[in-house]
Amino acid sequence: MRPRDQQLQGIAGKSFDVCVIGGGATGAACSLDAQLRGLRTVMLDAGDFAGATSSAATKIVHGGVRYLEEAIKDVDPKEYHVVVRALHERVRMLNNAPHLTRQLAFVVPSYHWLNAAYLDIGLKIYDWLAGSARIAPSKYVSREETLERMPNLKQEGLIGSVQYADGQFDDARYCLALAQTFSEAGGNALNYARVTEFGRNSAGRLSSVHVTENRAGKQFVVNAKVFINATGPFTDAIRTLATPTVHKRMRLSKGAHILFPRDVFPCKDAMLIPKTDDGRVLFVVPWRGRLLVGTTEQEVTPDEEYFVSREDVDFMLGQLNKYLEHPVKASQIVSGFAGARPLVSAGENESTQKIARDDVIEVDAKSGLISIMGGKWTTHRAMAEDTVAAAQKALGVPVTESPTRSHVLHGGEGFSNDLSEKLTAAFPISKETARHLAAKFGTAAWKVLELTKGGANLGQPILSGSPQIQAEVVYCVREELAATIEDILARRIGVQFYSWRDAIRCAPPVGKLMAQELQWSNDQTQAAVEAYVGKINHYLEKAGLEQETPSGAAGRASAD
Ligand SMILES: Cc1cc2nc3c(=O)[nH]c(=O)nc-3n(C[C@H](O)[C@H](O)[C@H](O)COP(=O)(O)OP(=O)(O)OC[C@H]3O[C@@H](n4cnc5c(N)ncnc54)[C@H](O)[C@@H]3O)c2cc1C
């Protein structure tokens, strides 16, 4: 992406065919689809790209085993449709960004024969629904093999397990790859640019947005022929801004995740706990050197702050420990995150657990606003395909085929699984750094490493012994519109999800590198570091964990 001042120049006061409000999975996908179909498109996000729900997913590319169960129980063709569509999108998502995705085996342990048979049949239906989009067939796994693969699984009463295949992805980086690909296709994208008001033409149709940009401190207007509202949990606020009398349609459900060191449950496969006390499923997934456990379900409102609470921790530990031979403790938690699922409700009395993860496109007859609501990360592309078709109709141009079905995303071009070896052969970097760069940036890792040729220690780790190197900070500021320490440590290089304490230790060196790039004064840098450290300590406190100070002590911000 071009630097911030150039993005601003290309957007403020300018006119576009399509203005997409929101730069999460849905907005980034809509923007890319529209731009590739030849529509001049601008994407605006109030915070960072993927800064809301789109970096708080369980990171599974799936049709949804739980939704299939609901569909069977409810005999609901709509719910089947959601699963089948997602199963087909799953393959496209894996293919379009091979550096950010992988196939993953999910093992469902069983402690009763009837339960094992039920699971086996259900997962055969899952395979069958996937049809040609099937990744690998599900199968029964014996008790011995299950325990070999999951040594810390509770042994008493274990019958065996059923294994099925889905995918795993890096949600924040996938969103950034969509935004980068959009920008490469000629699109204009800006983060920290909040839409605050609509302008209208004489017929009352939306014709412009007022934008407040909070990094350079600018306010400006952007004109467009069509506006797409892709603001996830904030959808109702934008719908109301366009037409104050509309009924609210969104219901939000918070989901929290916690992360542990891998050795608490050594296993290269994921585990699905099929029934929690509140009747849902819990995933236990290997994720970039950690064990990711989630999630919870609790109805929330859009103005709340979403964090992992002590109650979330106790609930997840309680569910997980029922399945472990050696229980895990809260003190072993290294990180966590929470987000709000943007669900489209049929009515106030419907439980958020029961709301299908389907998406709905609404075209407001009065204002012309197109809102894309609900959905899942896995279906982001299909949702965008349909939304842009609606935008073409609104523009009065022919609906053209979406080019995104097999459009390889930024960093995925020319990617192969031996990329990290090629990087170590060409640059004096550790294997861990090479693996980390390949997994986060794909073939754009070459560009990150080019920066190290300029000297100034950019090839050095951010913290002694960490795989993340200083050049990443510079690259993310220059090429990915990173504007805060959190943009870097959370969504771009992943340290915050790996370890809250490592993230605190990384804040001062990252602040210093950003200050050089963005001309921050000493006071600004100190304020940025303090704000970030305060935020992470707040997360630690809310989760019931001890707080941390950014000491000068060398720490380890670790491996992918
Ligand atoms: C706990 C949890 C686990 C999940 N796990 C999975 C999973 O494993 N697999 C899966 O497929 N899906 C999963 N999902 C669902 C998936 O994460 C969401 O469907 C998806 O991220 C929603 O993306 P979005 O772009 O619609 O919303 P968001 O990512 O929330 O993006 C909306 C954006 O709009 C911006 N915005 C708001 N107001 C304005 C304004 N006024 N001006 C400009 N911008 C504005 C916000 O800043 C935000 O960035 C999960 C969701 C949750 C919460």
Helix content: 25-40%
Radius of gyration: 23 Å
Poorly predicted sequence stretches spanning 5 or more consecutive residues: 552-560
* N/C terminus separation: 25 Å
Count of discrete domains: 3
User: Could you tell me which ligands this complex binds, including any ions or cofactors?
Assistant: flavin-adenine dinucleotide
The name of the CATH topology of the largest domain is FAD/NAD(P)-binding domain
Largest sheet: 10 strands, mixed
Name of the CATH homologous superfamily of the largest domain: FAD/NAD(P)-binding domain
Please, what is the average pLDDT?
93
**DSSP strand (E) fraction?**
15-25%
CATH top level of the largest domain? Alpha Beta
According to DSSP, the number of beta strands is 18
CATH architecture of the largest domain: 3-Layer(bba) Sandwich
What is the number of helical segments per DSSP (H or I, 4+ residues)?
Answer: 18
Looking at how many chains there are and whether they match, the oligomeric state comes to single chain
Indicate the overall shape. globular
Query: Structural class, please?
Result: alpha+beta
Report what the structure shows.
This protein has 560 residues and is of the alpha+beta class. The protein folds into three domains: 180 residues, FAD/NAD(P)-binding domain (3-Layer(bba) Sandwich), CATH 3.50.50; 160 residues, D-Amino Acid Oxidase, subunit A, domain 2 (D-Amino Acid Oxidase, Chain A, domain 2); 141 residues, Helicase, Ruva Protein, domain 3 (Orthogonal Bundle), CATH 1.10.8. It is 38% helix and 21% strand. The chain has 18 helices and 18 strands. Strands 3, 4, 5, 6, 11, 12, 13, 14, 15 and 16 form a ten-stranded mixed β-sheet that branches. Strands 1, 2, 7, 8, 9, 10, 17 and 18 form an eight-stranded mixed β-sheet that branches. A hairpin with a 6-residue loop joins strand 17 and strand 18. Helix 11 crosses helix 12. The radius of gyration is 23 Å and the shape is globular. The chain starts with a helix and ends in an 18-residue tail after the last helix. The C terminus is likely disordered. Bound molecules: flavin-adenine dinucleotide (FAD).
